[in-house]
Amino acid sequence: MSIDLRPYQSALVDNTRLSLAGGNRRVVAYLPTGGGKTRTAAAIICMALAKSRKVVFIANRKQLVLQTSAVLDGLCIKHGILQADNTRNLDARVLVASIDTVHLRGLPDDIGLIIIDECHSVAGSAKLKQIMFSRNLVPVIGLTATPFAAGMAVCFRQRCKTPGALRKPPQHGGDLASGGCSGEQEERRDPAAVRLSRAALQPRWRRQPRRGPAPRYSSKASTRTDRAQRSPHGAVE
After folding, report:
1. Which of 45, 79, 85, 184 has the fewest CB atoms within 10 Å, i.e. is most exposed?
2. pLDDT along the chain (237 residues), means of 10
3. Does residue 174 contact residue 181 with C-beta atoms inside 8 Å?
4. Which pLDDT belongs to residue 1?
5. 130-142: pLDDT as tens digits
6. CA distance linking residue 236 with residue 227, whole number of Å
7. How far apart are CA 203 and CA 54, in angstroms?
8. Which residues pair with 55 in a beta bridge?
9. How many CB atoms lie under 10 A from the CB of residue 10?
10. 90 contacts: CB under 8 Å, gap ≥ 6
11. Partners of residue 76 on adjacent β-strands
């Protein structure tokens, strides 16, 4: 089954396939908001099904589970749902799952591909990290519109993007598919890139530069001396 994609969506699928073929098992595929990430993911799902792989699509909210299920229904892709009381058809080759339910019930053993929606939340989600750690041999594709969240490079190997989404020339000697740097370079520079300075964590009023001289806190005697120095006579009575 083939799905009609726009040129930039097809380019994203091609870049993702090349990254996986190159040995990267943790890949981020990102498009701007409204770029059709779910439809692009459906095309990747069809390719995985053609290779007899079982796919699970994980979302972190109930609304996203229902939205993804509706898109797959519109494309005539048979699937099951693993989400609390809405669970059904778990024997399907494609599962749309909620992260909370997956954390409680687990995943089937024969999963061949994991797709994580809104993958920028992985860095702060112990549940998603646990899944990626326990299934470390299973390829994982993350979908997001904000791929530069702090800590993402620790969880994902490479970022894939569409050529039209590049606004600046590649830096650090990287290629277009990795967003300007390879997975190894991204991991090496990640601690410095995501580290927040102490000043950035302080409230705004603490970060404002001080205007004027610092206030003076002195005793009563020193205050009298200051007044005398400011008087026209210049002496203390």
Report:
1. 85
2. 88 93 89 91 95 95 93 94 92 94 92 93 87 90 84 58 41 33 38 40 49 56 54 50
3. yes
4. 67
5. 998 889 899 999 9
6. 9
7. 48
8. 94, 113
9. 15
10. 80, 82, 108
11. none
Question: If you compute the radius of gyration of the chain from its CA atoms, what whole number of angstroms results?
Answer: 27
pLDDT of 180 = 33
Q: List C-alpha distances in Å: 35 to 7, 118, 145.
A: 11, 14, 9
Q: Which residue has the tokens 């190997």?
A: 157
CA–CA gap between residue 186 and residue 158 (Å, rounded): 8
Helix 62-74 with 37-50: angle, nearest 10 deg: 60
Separation of alpha carbons 13 and 60, rounded Å:
23
Residues written for the chain: 237
Query: Beta strands of 60-117 (E only): which ranges?
Result: 80-82, 94-98, 111-117
- The beta-carbon contacts of 217-223 under 8 Å, at least 24 apart in sequence, are none
Q: Are 92 and 78 in contact (CB under 8 A)?
A: yes
Tokens of 26: 């943790």
Write out the H or E segment, with its range, that includes residue 127. Answer: helix 126-134
Neighbour-count burial of 214, counting CB atoms closer than 10 A to its CB (0-12 exposed, 13-18 middle, 19+ buried)? exposed
- Number of helices (H), then strands (E), belonging to the chain: the values are 9, 7
The CA distance from 88 to 109, in Å, is: 18
